Amino acid sequence: MQFTDTIYALSSGALPAGVAIIRVSGPGAADALVRLCGALPRARTAALRTIRTRNGGALDNGLVLFFPGPSSFTGEDCCELQIHGGRAVVHAVLDELSQIAGFRHAEAGEFSRRAFQNGRMDLVEVEGLADLIAAETEMQRRLALEQAHGGNSALYQAWAQRLTHARAMIEAELDFADEDDIPGSVSASIWADIVTLRNEIDTHVDEAGLAEIIRDGLKIVIAGEPNAGKSSLLNALAKRDIAIVTEIAGTTRDVLSVDLSLAGFSVKLFDTAGLRETEELVEREGIRRAREIIGHADLVLLLSEKPGAFHLDEAITDDVPVIRVATKLDRGETAWQPTDADVFLSTKTGAGIADLLQELTAFLPDLAGRTSFAMPSRKRHVDCLRQASAALERGLAMEGLDLQAEQLRLASDALGRITGRVDVENLLDVIFSEFCVGK
């Protein structure tokens, strides 16, 4: 796709910084380098240049690179200016670029959008790149890298090719049934593969839960009666003061949360209001919110400062695992028995915290030895995959090759929407708005 305007933006981090990178993409990228630096460097070779204003005044010295299209990130001529990361320096260079006719500041995600529209990336790779930039844990990095480098895209493309072959064979039998060189039994060869393909898609969808834990984090809720030590445990695990801690029951009124990294996974830890019956209006709202977040938990830490007080609230359903945590052991006021709780700890002395972390780690997915992270990580991927599987199921159940061929087409279109091959215009603004301006 040809664009008539040239875009530019700061593509590196917040200022001030040691180095700032300004990216330029579009038909005027080469002319911009000549105008600012006096000469065009060799393609893909860094050159030290003095960057000047249109009147010849020096702005800064820095490295410049030129990437001629189509072999560039966006698929069009691109250049980068690696300059000192002071605010005044960067703003001066950006202002100089703004004075060039046909140049404008890039919108959020516009460089990546041009890469998609020029065929340099598909939507799964674009979303993987966004996730890679935002990754905070090792597992998030590995999941995002698999998608950004085309692991999922290659899988979906292979499935699409199998569907294309199946449709071609069916169309051939429909149109040329009287010809001797056209296979006479599509069902014998094609439909067996369609059954296998549907099973492969369903197995792939089954891994969406694992991908959700990697991408969005394991949701762990700290629950229990008032004054059981919930906020103290949150602060101890976060290693900083997040929640207010007092001896007054009902201090926590709202849901507090903190993100932690545990064994390479993201863990979202929620502190909640103490669960009890109360007539106090604000505390009642806090308890309602606590029960709501418990309903969405992957794991509940149920706290108690005395034996026999691990009361399962109505919000804790049977399908949510619970770890019973005995607290305030440093006080020595209660004689706990080994079977009274799963973990015994004191947030004041730190005793038992390591045991709790070990228990939490046991609830994380075991990915030891796993080399591929090709799994659906977004709801829209899962929705399209389920649509493809449902279409294949309908096709297998129908009679009549023409009706079956239509279901294969619907399955193929559903796969195409994942990568952006089919009917995705309404998705583009949403997807690319997640990017920072310089990407």
From TrEMBL:
Record's GO cellular component terms: cytoplasm
Binding site for K(+): N227, T246, I248, T251
Any one GO molecular function term: metal ion binding
Residue sites binding GTP per the record: 227-232, 246-252, 271-274
Source organism, top-level taxon: Bacteria
EC nos: 3.6.-.-
Keywords per UniProt: Cytoplasm, GTP-binding, Hydrolase, Magnesium, Metal-binding, Nucleotide-binding, Potassium, tRNA processing
Cofactor note: Binds 1 potassium ion per subunit.
Chain residues that bind (6S)-5-formyl-5,6,7,8-tetrahydrofolate: R23, E80, R120, K439
Coiled coil: none
Main location: cytoplasm
PANTHER family per UniProt: TRNA MODIFICATION GTPASE GTPBP3, TRNA MODIFICATION GTPASE GTPBP3, MITOCHONDRIAL
Xref: NCBIfam families: mnmE_trmE_thdF (TIGR00450), PRK05291.1-3 (NF003661), small_GTP (TIGR00231)
HAMAP family: GTPase_MnmE (MF_00379)
Subunit (UniProt): Homodimer. Heterotetramer of two MnmE and two MnmG subunits.
Record-stated family: Belongs to the TRAFAC class TrmE-Era-EngA-EngB-Septin-like GTPase superfamily. TrmE GTPase family.
The protein's name: tRNA modification GTPase MnmE
Source species of the chain: Sinorhizobium alkalisoli
Lineage: Bacteria, Pseudomonadati, Pseudomonadota, Alphaproteobacteria, Hyphomicrobiales
Gene assigned in the entry: mnmE
